[in-house]
Amino acid sequence: METDGLVAGVRAGETRAVARAISLVEDGRPEARALLAALFPHAGRSLVVGVTGPPGAGKSSLVDRLAAHARRQGRTVGIVAVDPTSPFTGGAILGDRIRMQAHATDPGVFIRSMATRGHLGGLAAATGQALLVLSASGKDVILVETVGVGQDEVEIVGTADVSLVVLVPGMGDEVQALKAGIMEIADVFVVNKADREGVERVVTEIESMLSLSPGDQERPVVVKTVATRDEGTASLFEAVETFHRRAASSGALARKRRAQLRRQLEDAVRERVMAQVFRQVVTPAELDATVERLAARAEDPFTAAEGIARRMGLA
Question: How far apart are CA 81 and CA 27, in angstroms?
Answer without folding.
Answer: 17
